[in-house]
Each structure stands twice: as structure tokens, then as C-alpha cells.
Amino acid sequence: MKIKVVFYIVSFLLTASLQGMAQSAPEAEALDSRNVKYRDVRTIESKQLHQDYTDSIVSIIDVRSPLEYKTIHIKGAVNIPLTSNTFIHSLSNSIRQAPDKKIVFY
Predict the structure, then answer these.
(1) 82 φ, ψ to 5°?
(2) What is the C-alpha to C-alpha distance for residues 35 and 65, in angstroms, rounded to an integer?
């Protein structure tokens, strides 16, 4: 029972924080235009992310530690810790397995 409660609280907080961070299209485009180093990186609104997740057109990469991933993660997310020595290699493999999907990091 405690695990379900914690899961619901974490889910609620994650959803609330994503909605709070969601930006209108002009604001997102302004951020994208300032993104000089990573030109292929785009921001999307949380509603669009949810729809893409529901439609299975995104690959979700969880870049947190294995312990954090084991504690709670999004169903279907792949854990590739950002601090891992094999991050680039593992990410490349994930992209090869689903080349048509958008990549979402969290």
C-alpha cells in the first residue's frame, strides 16, 4: 500500500512539474533558437510528450543512476546513466533499435 501511495505522489509531482515547465510554442521556439550548441535538440510541451508516449513514437531514456531507476521509473523507459562510461555506446544502440522514434531524456 505504501508503494502505491508513494508512486501516486511521485507521479502527481512529476506531472505537476512537467505542466509547470510546459511552455507555449513561441517560448519553446525562442529557447530553441538560443540553443546554438545542440541544434537538433527541441523542446516539446508535456501534453505532446504524453501523446507521443501513448502513441509509442518516443524512446524514453532515463539518465539517472540505476538506484534511482530501480526506485521508480516510467514504464518502458531505458536506463542509460549519464555518468556511465558506456553512455554514448548504449545510446547509439538504443537509436539503432528504434531509428524512427524521437528520443526523450529524463
Answers:
(1) -60, -30
(2) 26
Domains in the chain, please, with CATH?
A: 2-105 (3.40.250)
Query: Crossing angle, helix 46-54 and helix 2-21, to 10 degrees?
Result: 130
Q: How far apart are CA 60 and CA 69, in angstroms?
A: 12
Q: Which residues pair with 103 in a beta bridge?
A: 59
Tens of pLDDT, residue by residue over 34-64, are 556 767 777 888 899 899 999 999 999 999 9
Q: How many CB atoms lie within 10 A of CB 104?
A: 16
Q: Which residue has the cell 531509428?
A: 99
Looking at the whole model, is its pTM more than 0.90?
A: no
